[in-house]
Amino acid sequence: MTSLPGDSDVGGGSARESQPLACARCGARAEGPRPTWTCSVENGTRHYFCDRCSRENLRAIEGRLDSAWW
Domain segments of the chain: what residues? Predict the structure, then answer.
């Protein structure tokens, strides 16, 4: 598995991988292995967005607007 920027493989895995991932916009929960969601770093904090929310807000994401704007 490829790690995300800023992730560390030290310690044999992170606690984040064992917890279900939730969309920062709609709250949808990921089931199974890590999904193909959009990851956004805003003010030093990672936010994950499900495929549906990512598609609905593609222009704002490409324009690099913070999620608070969309």
Answer: 21-69
Q: Are 53 and 64 in contact (CB under 8 A)?
A: no
Digit-coded pLDDT (tens) for 8-62 = 444 444 555 567 899 999 999 998 777 789 988 888 999 999 999 999 988 888 8
Q: pTM of the prediction? A: 0.62
Neighbour count for residue 48 (Cβ, 10 Å): 19
Sign of CA dihedral 46, 47, 50, 53: negative
Segment (H or E) for 56: helix 51-56
Q: Is 35 exposed, middle or buried (0-12, 13-18, 19+ CB in 10 A)?
A: middle
